[in-house]
């Protein structure tokens, strides 16, 4: 696998995407860079984005931090422009990974909760792909990929997450449409990676106090643990592997689906869940 990936990395020249400054995104950036790819690290948290890029560059890789707010159209234009410049005029891979949860039960869901999750998890990935279209709708014989991160909530639904579930389900439909539109003429592959319980701040104990700031308001993230098993195998009885996944394992699946080893896979949804929901 490594030999083929290293050979292919020279062809990639510039895999790039919404590679966050932490969690799965940071691991994606690290793993792609390890295979010789040039990566863009995009995150609203500038210090974290820069720290990831500096780590990669310090280890001999090639990375550029382009921090900013994905909800701003001007930032998306800047992101694509800098990505293309960093890649020598080309973009080969987009990884749509940015996001968080803003939970609420159906009858208490606010417009703000709904609109933000739809914008962040569905509209922004589309807007980025639309902005980057000139770099994908080309016939130079080089492989190109769009990998969008979904969730088991988008496939099976999840109580308290109707906004997030709807947006993540939309990602699956978007992926299939890209595969059907850009596959025939341009050879673009598009796939979705749907993750289950991966150990990140989104699945840590909500009581730990992690949050994101939305228009000056702190939005608590994580999973409430009051009255639930504290850890060990009993906490994951619905997962056949009896444990959560790591950010590295999730990022490895993303790398695998974007690699030449998956060159005939397009329009599919890969569930990275440890066997949950089978």
Descriptive report:
The chain has 278 residues and is α/β, with parallel strands linked by helices. The chain has one domain (2-272): Rossmann fold (3-Layer(aba) Sandwich). The protein has helices at residues 2-12, 23-34, 46-58, 73-86, 111-132, 152-156, 162-186, 247-258; strands at 38-41, 62-65, 93-96, 144-151, 188-195, 211-214, 217-220, 269-272. The strands form 3 sheets. A 4-stranded parallel beta sheet has the order 3-4-5-8, sandwiched between helices. A two-stranded parallel ribbon has the order 1-2. The longest helix has 25 residues, at 162-186. It is globular and about 55 Å long. It holds the Pfam family adh_short. This is 3-oxoacyl-[acyl-carrier-protein] reductase. It catalyses: a (3R)-hydroxyacyl-[ACP] + NADP(+) = a 3-oxoacyl-[ACP] + NADPH + H(+). One of its GO terms (molecular function) is 3-oxoacyl-[acyl-carrier-protein] reductase (NADPH) activity. Belongs to the short-chain dehydrogenases/reductases (SDR) family.
């Amino acid at each position: 696998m490594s030999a083929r990936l290293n050979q292919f990395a020279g062809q990639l020249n510039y895999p790039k995407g919404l590679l966050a400054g932490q969690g799965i995104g940071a691991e994606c950036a690290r793993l792609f860079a390890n295979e010789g790819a040039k990566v863009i690290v995009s995150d609203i948290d500038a210090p974290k984005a820069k720290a990831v890029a500096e780590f990669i560059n310090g280890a001999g890789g090639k990375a550029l931090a382009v921090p900013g707010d994905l909800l701003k159209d001007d930032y998306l234009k800047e992101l694509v422009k800098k990505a293309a410049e960093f890649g020598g005029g080309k973009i080969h891979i987009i990884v749509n990974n940015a996001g968080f949860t803003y939970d609420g039960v159906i009858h208490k869901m606010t417009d703000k909760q709904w609109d933000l999750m739809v914008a962040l998890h569905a509209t922004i990935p589309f807007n980025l792909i639309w902005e980057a279209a000139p770099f994908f709708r080309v016939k130079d014989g080089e492989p190109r990929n769009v990998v969008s991160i979904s969730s088991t909530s988008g496939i099976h639904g999840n109580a308290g997450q109707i906004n997030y579930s709807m947006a993540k389900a939309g990602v699956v439909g978007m992926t299939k449409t890209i595969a059907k539109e850009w596959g025939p003429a341009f050879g673009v592959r598009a796939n979705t990676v749907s993750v289950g319980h991966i150990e990140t701040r989104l699945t840590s104990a909500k009581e730990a106090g992690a949050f994101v700031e939305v228009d000056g308001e702190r939005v608590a993230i994580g999973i409430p643990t009051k009255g639930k098993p504290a850890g060990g195998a009993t906490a994951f009885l619905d997962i056949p592997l009896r444990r959560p996944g790591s950010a590295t394992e999730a990022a490895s699946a993303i790398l695998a689906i974007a690699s030449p080893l998956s060159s005939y896979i397009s329009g599919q949804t890969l569930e990275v869940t440890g066997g949950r929901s089978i």
